[in-house]
Amino acid sequence: MFFARLRTDIRCILERDPAARSGWEVLTCYPGIHALILHRRAHWFWNHGFKWLGRATSQLSRWLTGIEIHPGAKVGERVFFDHAMGVVVGETAEIGDGCTIYQGVTLGGTSLYKGTKRHPTLGRDVVVSAGAKVLGGFVVGDGAKIGSNAVVIKPVPAGATAVGIPARIIMPKGENTGDAAMSTPRFSAYGVTPEDDPLSQAMRGLIDSTAAQDHQITLLWKAVEQLSRQQKQGDCVPQDAARAECFEAEKLAQLIGK
């Protein structure tokens, strides 16, 4: 059982990290897999009543790897802690199968009451990017992505992306959620894609709208000028009327990365 899980862990890292060249390199040089091995032992101690021993093993893992996982936390299969220095996972946190967690992530709580679900639950194949903070006892749905440095304080639907402080939820195209959103799963390093920033999307919409209006105004002035000439009333057209489009839509679009 131990070696079967270990082979699965190594294989998932080789699939997701292009810098990994061999299973031996992963086993000996990746702190994320060391943290998983030690956490499973600490979790066993915790669940069998050896609370102090579980905490001591967790503390040893923290010293050796820089990854702090409470022994009470539940971690699924094929979880990849990539780099992961400074990761903190709270006692009641749950990490689903296939999740990827980068450095500086906190799966923390907002409640001081013992015995309650204080920390988040991550579904399957969730990506939590560098520096993100997921705070509270809510669920992050399957296939969701948390952007770098986001602060998430409310549930995230399956397949959605959370970015910003506090995090804004961006639904996948077509409003697909759940199994529909996971029908063609695609790994997204650091949880970002070109469609993930709502402010950029809003700016792109404003630029497109302004460019269209500028084009329409230019056409209207040209039509007025032509009509005035036909009626021999060219002096009715203002001298400063726009005869050509001057809105630099392409330049502004480049600035926001369109």
In short:
Helix content is 38%, strand content 13%.
Q: What would the keywords be for this entry?
A:
2 domains; six-stranded mixed beta sheet; UDP N-Acetylglucosamine Acyltransferase, domain 1; alpha/beta; 258 residues; acyltransferase; 7 helices
3D structure, described in words:
With 258 residues, the chain is an alpha/beta fold. The protein has helices spanning 2-16, 23-29, 31-47, 51-65, 178-181, 198-230, 249-255, and strands at 68-69, 74-75, 80-81, 88-89, 94-95, 100-101, 106-108, 121-122, 127-128, 133-135, 139-140, 145-146, 151-152, 161-163, 168-170. The strands form 3 sheets. It has a 6-stranded mixed β-sheet. Strands 1-4-7-10-13 form a 5-stranded parallel β-sheet. Strands 2-5-8-11 form a 4-stranded parallel β-sheet. A hairpin with a 4-residue loop joins strand 14 (161-163) and strand 15 (168-170). The longest helix has 33 residues, at 198-230. The chain is elongated and about 95 Å long. Residues 175-185 have low confidence and may be disordered. Pathway: Amino-acid biosynthesis; L-cysteine biosynthesis; L-cysteine from L-serine: step 1/2. It catalyses: L-serine + acetyl-CoA = O-acetyl-L-serine + CoA. Pfam families: Hexapep (PF00132).
